[in-house]
Give the backbone structure.
Amino acid sequence: MARRVSLLIALFAFWAMLSGQLDITVFGQAFLTVCGVISCLFVVWIASRMGIIDMEGHPVHLALRAIAYVPWLFWQIVLSNFDVAMRVWHPSRPIAPRIIRVPNTTRSDLATVIYANSITLTPGTVTIGVDSATNELIVHALTKETADAVLTGDMERRVKRLEGVA
Amino acid sequence: MNAMDIAVGIFLALGCFFALTGAVGIVRMPDFFSRLHPAGKNDTLAVTSIMIALLIRTVEYDYHWTVATKLLLIVGIIFVTAPAASHAISKAAFLDGLKPWTKPGDTEASNE
């Protein structure tokens, strides 16, 4: 139930962000705000009927810890871009691509997705797939250094901290 | 020309530079998998820098705040969808058995 209420609040915040019609002293805007609330309630009702309001569908429990994770990820993305840009423009194109297998010890599917997505966004690595039999991520790395950087498991620790395990 | 104009110019130039780098990277990289790196990443930062420039403009010209939230939303959606698209394309190629290019003489890079 708490998750439904938080979904309703999130949906209404989203609606308010897009419409900006929040001056309820004006009749037209008050009408639109009421319509927005009704739409949000309707969406929550449909979603709960479909049974998709769970840890994965509405991961509000990660919201607080994500505040620490997202800025770090963003900084990694900036570094990643400069690194790849350098390799693109460098006359001798200094790359040595390889495919590596990265052990994945995150617990939930959602954390695995966040981890794989973060690997794709950060320096010179793209996640190709998840081998669920051995619980490994198949990662294409642009250089040996970037491959080693993923294998140190620093990012995995941060994702697990986000997940609340470590 | 004030400080705002200079900041907007810098971010727009940075965005253009990264978009161009992505395009050049697709031409210069040797094989399919390595082409995904510039295509998937540089575009993310290119869009982000251009959106930062536009955000500065919306603040400067005192537009309605919903304009700014929509710009931020574009950045957020690009951050989620760009890696997902790269992953989907590369997984399709991997399952189809495409062998990644490795540097000649690079014995450590194993071809699975």
Summary: Residues 3-95 of chain B form one domain. Chain B has one domain: 3-95. Chain B touches chain A through 46 residues (CB under 8 Å). Chain B is about 75% helix and 0% strand.
